[in-house]
Amino acid sequence: MESSKPACHRSFLLLRNLFYVGITYALTASIIHLFQNGYIHDRLHPPSDLIAKPTPTPTLGVISRLRPESLVIPQDDFLGKRPHADTYANFTRLIEVCRGSLTGLEKMRNVYDCLKYLAGRESEYYFIPTTNVPSKLSKDYPEIDKAQKPNNSSIGPCPGPIIPYHTYWTGPATWRVEFFIKGYLHTQNLACSRLYLWLDTDAHPFAVPDMMRDPIFAKFLLLVERGDIILKEWKFPSRIPLPKSPENVEPRYIDATPDPVTGVTVIGDGVIREADGSEWVVLTPRQLTFLPVAVSDAVRFIVLHLWGGLYCDMDVLMLRDMRPILLPPEHAFAERWAVHTHPGDYNTAVMSLSANSSLSSYLLRGGVRMGINFHPRIIGRMAWKDGRNEEFAMFETGLFDPIWGEFNWGREGRCSIPCLRDYNAAFMGEVGYVKNSGEWESWDREQLKEILPREKREFVLRGLPRLEEREKYDISLDLYPPNNRTMANFFRGAYTYHIHNQWKKHPQPNSWLDVVMKAHDGFLAKKRKNPYGEMWEGFEVGRYERFMEFENF
Ligand SMILES: *[C@@H]1O[C@H](CO)[C@@H](O)[C@H](O)[C@H]1NC(C)=O
Ligand SMILES: *[C@@H]1O[C@H](CO)[C@@H](O)[C@H](O)[C@H]1NC(C)=O
Ligand SMILES: *[C@@H]1O[C@H](CO)[C@@H](O)[C@H](O)[C@H]1NC(C)=O
Ligand SMILES: *[C@@H]1O[C@H](CO)[C@@H](O)[C@H](O)[C@H]1NC(C)=O
Ligand SMILES: *[C@@H]1O[C@H](CO)[C@@H](O)[C@H](O)[C@H]1NC(C)=O
Predict the structure, then answer these.
(1) How far apart are CA 3 and CA 214, in angstroms?
(2) What sections of the protein cross the membrane (predicted)?
(3) Of 144, 216, 371, 537, which has the most beta carbons under 10 Å away?
(4) Average per-residue pLDDT in the chain?
């Protein structure tokens, strides 16, 4: 008797403590999640209108292999003909249309109008220059209509300068690396582009040979051979060359003289001139020992300084040919940080700089001087203070990350198409979610014709082999039934979509990302066209692996 009460009390205490631990854990996890992804995903209490209502039968009560790919016939060539290889985008126009004035920012929050303009009015912001036409700059360039298409053995010649695209990765390949690469192959002008995959070797010395043996990356080995993809070892350099310039000399070093032994002259903080006249940013041994956590923030500035072209984070999906925004001589740009109003608040997930330029040198030196701190908003504010942001165009989120302004700031105008309210939404294919998410709220055109009558959907899309099998697919039992999503309506007009991390998550069948994956695989299997109506000319590239958690064979 005596002991039962304390025992009871003890177990109460235990339960209470467990409860507190649970709460603390949930809170901490949410906070970490919030930092990583920018939104809270409450697993215990998802918004009730977003949960699939429990069906009486097992949720995956269908054989997923028999599921039709779509409820509609997608229009794959929705972007029309690819822009001519000499096309420039008019940066001034793009900024005015999607931002408004520099101080007023009247249009910054209206992504719908920005995308509508981008998708429909190319002729107003694309043009072919009349002087210094890129394809005429060298007599080695073939004529545009004579340039051979890529084939199995050759990527084909580019009638003009080839633009490098860079991305950075650490560790083995995942479906996200595949997604990035396939997005590139699906949309870019391949003969005129090269994809540099920078693999971190500071922490993983064998990153490049490991990648060459990686089972997921194996799909792309023939493209490494053909020259489309170039694997590069990333090692933090101890010194970085600067183009020789009077700008490199800081005022208080103006009278510096060469060291009599080495011939080296210190011409600025962390900047030297060698005896042969070359000028360098030099990192101290201390800086090299204590590399910042955010190495990738620095990689993009160093790589673009040395190589030029475009840098994209691996979580950026390319949706359109980016050449017209990379080709103009003055093409330095980055994105705005969400809808922050400060003119120095850049985001560098998508960024372009000219190699060895005054701007790239300036940004590089700034980041090194601040202790290898290349946080975009810190670098950006520095550039703004020094009056350098005029040279560094800031594009609005509509171009690269159309939903960034949606969920935590006041959007103005209509929601984009699709209307996704958080970064999780692109992964969702569950029937209840699709029905209740309101993702079509801005769609006011005719509905796409569904190829199956609503009453009878135990079908027949690709001539199923046997009658018994045909009867086994019942759309009403499918948790992830086919729907009317197509890539043509996935932020049409935007150059990229930014997934924002979420590296471990898999897209559900028939989610927007899954629809994009099917478009990639259909194209690379030579069954579907890309958005520019082109067929894949190379060898077949393996399909995505299926995510087993969604399968029911
Ligand atoms: C670019 O756009 C600006 C602003 O709309 C316009 O004034 C300028 O003429 C355009 N430039 C070209 C080359 O079309
Ligand atoms: C592939 O393209 C290259 C260069 O464009 C060309 O020289 C070669 O003959 C082509 N090969 C085949 C098999 O068509
Ligand atoms: C930039 O300068 C470095 C060193 O001078 C040189 O190796 C590199 O080729 C240059 N990059 C470009 C794209 O011109
Ligand atoms: C897709 O279907 C939804 C209803 O499920 C509808 O509201 C929407 O307009 C359709 N979208 C298109 C492009 O047909
Ligand atoms: C290209 O390679 C594929 C194998 O990946 C082969 O089926 C196809 O016939 C080849 N095409 C040409 C033109 O050689």
Answers:
(1) 61
(2) 12-35
(3) 216
(4) 87
**pLDDT tens by residue, 471-482:** 567 788 889 999
Q: Which amino acid is at 513?
A: L
Q: Which residues pair with 335 in a beta bridge?
A: 347, 395
pLDDT tens-digit readout, 220-244 = 999 999 999 999 999 999 999 999 9
| CATH classification of the domain holding 197 | 3.90.550
- Which residue, judged by its Cα, is nearest atom 5 of ligand 4? 435
Closest listed residue to residue 115, CA positions, set 405, 411, 492: 492
Is residue 232 within 8 A of residue 194, CB to CB? The reply is no
Say what the alpha-carbon torsion angle 405, 408, 412, 417 is, to the nearest 10 degrees: 60
**Peptide bond connecting 215 to the previous residue in cis, omega within 30 degrees of 0:** no
Domain end residue (candidates: 347, 373, 405): 405
Residues 6 or more apart whose CB falls under 8 angstroms from that of 512 comprise: 418, 420, 425, 426, 427, 485, 490
3-state helix, strand, coil in the chain (%, to 5): 35, 10, 55
This prediction has a pTM of 0.87
User: Strand pairing partners for 127?
Assistant: 88
Question: How remote is the CA of residue 185 from the centroid of ligand 3, in Å?
Answer: 27
Total domain count, the chain: 2
* Same domain flag for 357 and 228: yes
Classify residue 190 by its DSSP letter: G
Same domain for 257 and 396, yes or no, is no
152 in contact with ligand 5, CB cutoff 6 A: yes
